[in-house]
Amino acid sequence: MNVHDSERMSGMLEGMGLTAVQDGPADVIVINTCAVRENAGTKLYGNLGMLRALKLERPHTQIAVGGCLAQKDQGEIIKRAPWVDVVFGTHNISALPVLLERARIEKESQIEMAEALEVFPSHLPSKRDHAYSAWVSISVGCNNTCTFCIVPALRGKEKDRRMGEILEEIEVLVADGVSEVTLLGQNVNSYGVEFGDKEAFGKLLRACGDIAGLERVRFFSPHPKEFSTDVLHAMRDTHNVMPSLHMPLQSGSDAVLKAMRRSYRQERYLSIIEDARSLIPNAAITTDIIVGFPGETESDFEETLKVVKAARFSTAYTYQYSKRPGTPAATMDNQIPQEVVTERFNRLVELGNAIAWEENKKQIGQRVEVLVADDQGKKDGETQRISGRARDNRLVHVAKPEGLVRPGDFVTAEVTYAAPFHLIADANVTVRHTLAGDKASNAAHDNGLLTIKTRIGQGV
Ligand code: SF4
What we know:
Layout (H helix, E strand, L loop, with lengths): L1 H14 L12 E6 L6 H18 L4 E6 H6 L1 H6 L5 E3 L7 H11 L3 E3 L20 E5 L1 E2 L10 H5 L3 E2 L2 H13 L4 E5 L15 H9 L7 E5 L8 H9 L6 E3 L7 H6 L6 H14 L4 E8 L6 H14 L3 E6 L17 H24 L5 E14 L2 E8 L4 E5 L10 E5 L2 E2 L4 E3 L1 E6 L2 H22 L4
The chain binds iron/sulfur cluster (SF4).
The site of iron/sulfur cluster has 9 residues, from α6.
C-alpha cells in the first residue's frame, strides 16, 4: 500500500514539472514513511538529521514527510526537524503539490492532516515502477482491530471503491501495456462491506477475467476471517487470476489468536488451506507469522509449528514480535523475553525453509511461464540468467535465451533446479514479446533524456 502511495506521489510530482533525479542533488525530497516497520521513527529522524546539512547547503531544496508515521507524529516532526517543509498524512496525499507550493511561497513549514480519506489514491496520477505491472487499490483502511497493528489507527475504517471504477482503471492500464495487476487492500476479501455485497470480491475477480489483454491478476492481502470458498471458486474459474494465495496466519494457537483479536481459529484456518488445496491444487500458498506475541507459551508456539507442517507454505514470512507504540499489545504485561522470541523464531524459520525447499523441489521438470522483471540478470559460471515471477509467484531465474528479452516479456522454461527461495529454469526456453516489453525499451531510452532535462531545469 505504501509503495503504491509512493507511485502516486511520484505521479503528482511529475505533474508539477519535476522529474526523478538518478544522481546529483534533488530540488524536492519526499520521505514516505511506514509505521508497520520496526524502528520507523529512528530511521526517519536519522534520515532527517542527515538531510539537515543538505538543506543548509541548498536552502531551496524542499523536504516533505508523508505516510503513517507522519500521520502519527504530526507536529512532532517539525519540532524535531524544523528544516522540514511539509508534513502530510495518509488521508491527504493529494495535497502534496499544493503544500509544497505554499511552503515555497510563504517560506514556512506546512503541516496538514485529514481525519478521513479525501480523494481515493487511485484517482491521482501515478508513475509506475514497471511498465508491465501495476497496483490497483480496491479499498483502503481496515475494520479489524488486531492488537499488534497500528494500521486502523492511521488508515481509518475500510472504504471500498466502486467496482466499475476499478475495472475502468484496469482497462486503461492494460491499454497502456500493463499485463499484470495486483488488487490492493488491507483486507481484500471484505471488499464490498461498505456497499453491502458480501460476494463483491469474487465478482470483481470474475470481472477481471473479461478484460482482454489482462494476463495476470493477483491480490494482496486477504484475511482468514471473511475468506469464502466463493473467492476460491472465482480464482479457479477465472483464467487470469493467478494460482497464488497469501493467507496470513499470525499464530497457530487459538489462545494467541484470541489475544491478537484475530477472530478465526486454527481449525478454520486449516479448513481454508484444505479447500484451497482441493480447488486449486497448483496454488502456492504463502503466509505471515508473528513469533513471541505477549503471553505466547511453548505449547502455543508448538501449535504454530503444527499448522506450518500441515499447511506446507511455499514461503512463510516470519517476524519476531516487537512492540509498536500505540497498539494494545504494546502495553500487555506478559511480554516474552527476547532470547525466547529469538530461539522460537530460529526454529520456525528452519522448519519453514525446509518445507519451502521440499515444495520447490516438486517443481523440477515442470514448465513455468515467467513474467520477466530483470532482463539483465546475473552470470552464474557460463550461464547468464534473467529473472521474474512464475504464475504462482515463485521467483525463477531463467537461462537468457538468444535475442531480445525485455522486462514485461514472458519466457517459458523447464525447471532444472530448486533452492529454498527460488527456482532455476534453464531448459527449453521460449520467449513471448509483449507491448509492455516494447514500452520498457522506450522508457529506458526516455529516462536518459529526462535526466538531462532535470539538470537543465534545476532550481526552476
Ligand atoms: S486485518 Fe489486522 S493486521 Fe491487517 S490491517 Fe487490519 S488490523 Fe492490521
